[in-house]
Write a structure and sequence with these properties.
single chain, 170 residues, alpha+beta, 4 helices, 5 strands, 35% helix, globular
């Protein structure tokens, strides 16, 4: 199943080539969608969102399931761009698949190793909003929105997989 990520600017095309070189030799598993290889910048986030929306459509996810998968993917991609590379250039490889029981999205990046689950805790809703610590809420919301999240450091690369279980009622 191929997913068209849309037209890309010359900068994005160059970034895709850099990421493609980094991802070379990484075989896609059976049942995967054609992946995105994009520069780790804010302009690329719309490509990730469109990819996830199309994956949800092809996987016949409900609107609610697709929203949850997109929320998690948006947060993860944004964190890679904003915090992972810390302003340095880099790339993100995104692929996904539709299986009998789930729809999944996988991110690969070369930013410093970081497991998003590290230090993740539910927000203390008893503390007034103005007194809460900054950070962590987006990751908490994202990872609790999906049915499963896996992280692994593979050959020095961050690999994160988000999944939503497919059901008739979503």
């Amino acid at each position: 199943m191929a997913i068209d990520s849309g037209a890309a600017s010359a900068e994005h095309t160059a970034g895709q080539e850099r990421c493609k070189a980094r991802c070379a030799g990484q075989p896609l598993a059976a049942g995967t969608a054609s992946g995105l290889r994009i520069p780790a910048d804010l302009d690329s986030l719309d490509l990730v969102a469109r990819f996830v929306l199309e994956l949800g459509r092809q996987g016949r996810l409900s609107d609610s399931q697709t929203y949850r998968l997109r929320l998690a993917a948006d947060e993860l991609a944004t964190n890679i761009v904003m915090h992972g590379y810390r302003g340095a250039s880099g790339g993100i490889c995104v692929d996904g698949g539709v299986e009998a029981d789930r729809v999944w999205v996988r991110f690969h990046d070369d930013a410093p190793a970081f497991d998003p689950r590290t230090g993740m805790k539910a927000p203390d809703l008893e503390v007034p909003l103005g007194e809460r610590s900054v950070g962590g809420l987006g990751v908490f919301l994202a990872l609790t929105a999906v049915d499963s999240f896996d992280y692994e450091l593979v050959a020095g690369r961050n690999v994160s997989i988000l999944a939503i279980h497919r059901s008739e009622h979503g």
